[in-house]
Amino acid sequence: MEQSVPDRMGDHRIFRGGHRGRRFFFRGASFCKYVCPIGQFHFVQSLVSPFEVKTRDLSVCRTCKTFDCIRGNEQQRGCELRLFQPKKESNLDCTFCLDCVQGLSA
Fold it and tell me: What is the pLDDT of residues 80-101, one digit of tens each?
């Protein structure tokens, strides 16, 4: 009896298709905002928090060339929600994960 070799390319296609589907359905960190229990916890925490993430000096943001708070860098990812801090008005869209703060270059 001859054993067949498993179709690894088929597995690869399924994985790639699932990855593309996830990227299509969960754009703009919608998974974090609407599905993920950790994201929901952060979102509720940001709504009731007396603190808010915002810029101290707008001139620093105006002269910034890297936008590490949004794009991230080699050490840390940026804001998954793509919130630009000078234009953010409240914590309503923020999940308070602080990736934007940790992504800033010194």
Answer: 888 888 888 777 778 778 888 8
